[in-house]
Amino acid sequence: MHYSWHLWYGQQVHIQVEARRIGGVELRCVQGEVNTSPALEMPNWMFDAGLGSGMKQDSLAHVSVASLAGAEGATVTGNRSR
Questions:
Q1: Could you state, in order of their start, the residue ranges of all structural domains in the chain?
Q2: Which residues are CB-neighbours of 40 under 8 A, at least 6 positions away?
Q3: What is the tens place of the pLDDT at every residue in 3-14?
Q4: How many Å apart are CA 42 and CA 65, to the nearest integer?
Q5: Quick one: 52 exposed, middle or buried, by C-beta within 10 A (0-12, 13-18, 19+)?
Q6: 73, 66 in Cβ contact below 8 A?
Q7: Other beta carbons within 10 Å of 48
Q8: Quick check: 45 and 53 in contact, CB under 8 A?
Q9: Contact 1, 9 (CB under 8 A)
Q10: Predicted model pTM
Q11: Rounded to whole angstroms, what are the CA distances from 9 to 20, 23, 57?
């Protein structure tokens, strides 16, 4: 897990199955080798070390209006596909 804002960041995660979705590939994962809790589905980009290393925490959060507008469209599209 290379996405530093995820609760499982830096921990051992086992991928049980890969599922293709409209928005991309989701990985069904459990924490540790043996886990009786339900699996979580996470996007495969969270496991990309190259993307994860490029994300840095800043003391001041900032986002562009264009990014927010794009995120809103993605959220609406995601809800319609279910």
A1: 13-80
A2: 28, 29, 30
A3: 888 888 888 888
A4: 26
A5: middle
A6: no
A7: 13
A8: no
A9: yes
A10: 0.56
A11: 23, 22, 14
